[in-house]
Amino acid sequence: MTLVSLGGSIAAVLLVSWLVGRLGLGRGAKLDAATARRIAGDTYIGHRFDEVVIDRDNRGALVAGSAGEVVLLRAHGDKWVARLLGLPLPARADGEALIIPAGETMFGPTTLTLGTEAALAWGRKLRGDA
Question: Could you name the domain of life of the organism this protein comes from (predicted)?
């Protein structure tokens, strides 16, 4: 009886895993520049956002506004969370990654893989060096 229960449990787990894959659940939300601008604009009405840099893993982005404001977008499940960053910020580049302390305990730091040049440039922008 125990072997039958174990086999049934394994079969049920495999079936649920297959269904999740077929339904597309658990897939990360995809982000492009236009979508990032729209999310930032919808979240922070009255701001105009132009410049966008997207994480290589497509799990986050930085969106800069025409008045110097910067919004951090980060994936949260299949949705996006947006935070207007208070500048200057002690962001730092670490190779190809940019590490951004959001300043909120609940939001926590974010690491975006942007490439070496973009990480350095956006790090300067967030620190107020540029």
Answer: Bacteria
Type and span of the H or E element at 41: helix 33-43
**Which strand ranges, in their side-by-side order, compose the sheet holding 60-65?**
49-54, 60-65, 70-76, 79-85
Phi-psi region of 106 (alpha: psi -120 to 50; beta: other; left: phi over 0): alpha
Question: What tens digit of pLDDT does each residue of 42-77 get?
Answer: 999 999 999 999 999 888 999 999 888 999 999 887
Two structure tokens written together for 67: 């008045």
The backbone region for 108, taken as left when phi is positive above 0, alpha when psi lies in -120 to 50, beta otherwise, is: left
- Whether the pTM exceeds 0.70: the reply is yes
